[in-house]
Amino acid sequence: MKLSIKPISDARWDCVSLGEVMLRFDPNDESVSTTRTFRVWEGGGEYNVARALHRCFGLRTGIVTALVDNAVGRLIEDLMRQGGVALDHLQWTEFDGIGESARNGLYFLERGFGVRPAQAIYDRAHTAVSQLRPTDVDWQRIFTKEGARWFHTGGIQAGLSETATETARAGMSAAHESGARVSYDANYRSLLWRKRGGRNQARAVNRELAQYADVVFGSVDDFISCEQAVNEATVKRLFETLPNVKILAMTRRRVLSASRNEWGATLYQNDGEAHHATTRELDILDRVGGGDAFAAGVICGLLEDRGGQWAVECGGAAGALAMTTGGDSLNASRANVERLMRDGDASAVR
Known about the structure:
Helix content: 25-40%
Shape: globular
Number of strands: 14
Order of helices and strands: EEEHEHEEEHEHHEHHEHEEEEHHH
Low-confidence stretches: none
Oligomer: single chain
Distance between the termini: 38 Å
Radius of gyration: 19 Å
């Protein structure tokens, strides 16, 4: 399937993402409750996609987000600058001295190993980006004056607050009206939706926002209640529910242990065609960010008009490589990704 995408010459940005960027605290191989040292990274689902598209695939990307102007916010800014994502649309919120009115998001992650699962602990209430209103962002500047070929956001942004949902809707609507292609990653996080109606409310919000999307990432069950396994009938039902959506791309993960997963992916088109990525057994160092790298690889393939099979293979390989290094980000090069797509093994390069 060919998506109609703006020419490179007509846009400053290949992709702009909207979402929260947090400071991640990693206790390495210890637990959060007993460690005495942490390593820190920046991270956030929508941001991770923009970073991977730039650092791995060489595309021009930016992030719409907000931070509180204190030392923690400046650290996050510095980490993002190292990632290369343009910060033209980063907004700063004044620090009130104690973080009562607004704060920067933090999260702590134990990676897990063997029979011990990974565990995330969020500290992200009342963050600056959760309070970012639709009218705080100059959408016309992004999509009309500067121009963007693709816009990406998702259920993590939408799950932060009612205001964050409205901001996601405004961005997706503006992108859609401008002729940019729009993607939405459901990225369900039970902790975010616990006080907002749980999975059923998340599905309702996902369906409402997906009316502006060309491509959605996630399972059928993220958008419509579906007790049976994903098959042709359930995928057809999704496309009937969301007739504007042209592509559903989803990862397939079977957890053998926290440190070993079976990993694959499928890209479904609304014309009935499906493309399946190579399935691999992976040794996992850090599983966070694998789905975001997958989304980046698929988006890259679609932006470059490589076809559904290339796109899903690129996403599958990018996601696999993202889970071999620490942190949320895809740190592999494009050559690494394409080599895995081509050769499919971990032979030494020397």
